[in-house]
Amino acid sequence: MTSPRTAHLAKSADAPPASPGPAPKRGLSYPLHEQLPAVGAAIEVAPGVFWLRMGLPFALNHINLWLLRDRLPHPTQLGAWQDGWTAVDCGVDNPATRQAWLQVEQEVLQGLPILRVLVTHMHPDHMGLAHWLCERWQAPLWMSTSEYQSAMLACSGLSNFGGDPTVQFFAAHGWNRPEDLAVVKSRVGYYTGMVPQVPGAYVRLMAGAQVRIGERNWQCIAGYGHSPEHMALYEAQGALLISGDMLLPSISTNVSVYAMEPEGNPLQHFLDSLDRMQHLPDETLVLPSHGRPFRGAVTRIAQLRQHHAERLDELVQACSQQDLSAHDVLPLIFKRALDVHQTTFAMGEAVAHLNLLWLSGQLLRQRGADGVYRFSRSQSSARPTGD
Ligand SMILES: [Zn+2]
């Protein structure tokens, strides 16, 4: 979620409403087949790497979390070591998820403590219980700076995911139904409802940094476009990728423009970020935040590129016929009826696609006398047929 990111809040974003692509599975394999961890239980997907699954209170009904066996110098006994766990992502803060973690404590942790809490990005399903886990285990939070600061802002109510700025942003992109916008305006407290607190300090993750966790060395891979500075983790020796929300097997990652950064180009950033995972060996086991662990990262990246390329092409064609706003193109991108909540995500995604085309010169953008931005085909970019 987020400010822009907050907006993200939207995270739900990750939510399927905004990401209605078909679920292309050809070329992907699921080595764990239909196995899913029960609530409060874990499946070991590689030595020392455990898969947890927690519920979510929105359409995307679950999140995958990871527990990595860890070993760190003992904080008070010089020369001694402490065995325990690093938790990767946390789930939202609600009673059910707290209860699930208490069950994990009893049934999965083997009596060992959580030594650190690593969060891939600030969206509520990943960040929600970080404050509680860090406090409970006296464990530090590890996170990138942009994600940490965006979480702090969102938690302080400064992310303008709802309220007047968001209403004005949507209205400028053609969404003008007063009753819908009244709902958007009232939508404050979305983030804090699931992330009531953020730990007061953190350890910074940076692109390219290596993090030693137990016997494994994980490399941070920064990703943009979904959230401010998402960190995926790649472990070369074991061919494991904790992909967070940047690479998902059956839904496309939510990529949205938000009111805080209305001229942003997150879709270009997202596509560029996929380049950083393009080199991964195809035997890499991808551990995504939603869906099942899979192999075939390069295939999946190609599918995502094609998915967005088709959308972009459709938009260019449509805007060649007539000038269109983001709201006008929703039926083109989303083939089913959307409620107000889903429309907020859909609008962000539509603007993301249109902004990419506008900022790359493939479409022109003009603001009408009614204050609405409309996009049209740029004649200078028109290519001859057959090109
Ligand atoms: Zn996310």
Name some characteristics of this structure.
12 helices; globular; disordered N terminus; binds zinc ion
Descriptive report:
The protein has 387 residues and is an alpha/beta fold. It is built from twelve helices and 16 strands. The chain has a seven-stranded mixed sheet. A six-stranded mixed sheet has the order 9-10-11-12-13-14. The chain has a two-stranded antiparallel ribbon with strand order 15-16. The radius of gyration is 21 Å and the shape is globular. The protein starts with a helix and ends in a 10-residue tail after the last strand. Bound molecules: zinc ion (ZN). The site of zinc ion (ZN) has 8 residues, from strand 1.
Short description, anyone?
With 387 residues, the chain is of the alpha/beta class.
Oligomeric state of this protein: single chain
The chain-level structural class is alpha/beta
Strand order of the largest sheet: 2-3-4-5-6-7-8
Instruction: Give the fraction of residues assigned to helices.
Output: 25-40%
Instruction: Write down the overall geometry.
Output: globular
- Hetero groups bound? zinc ion
| Main sheet makeup | 7 strands, mixed
Report strand %: 15-25%
Number of strands: 16
- How far apart are the termini? 39 Å
Radius of gyration: 21 Å
User: Would you identify the regions where 5 or more consecutive residues have pLDDT less than 50?
Assistant: 1-25
Mean pLDDT across residues = 90
Instruction: Compute the number of helices.
Output: 12
Sequence of secondary-structure elements:
HEEEEEHEHHEHHHHEEEEEHEEHHHEE
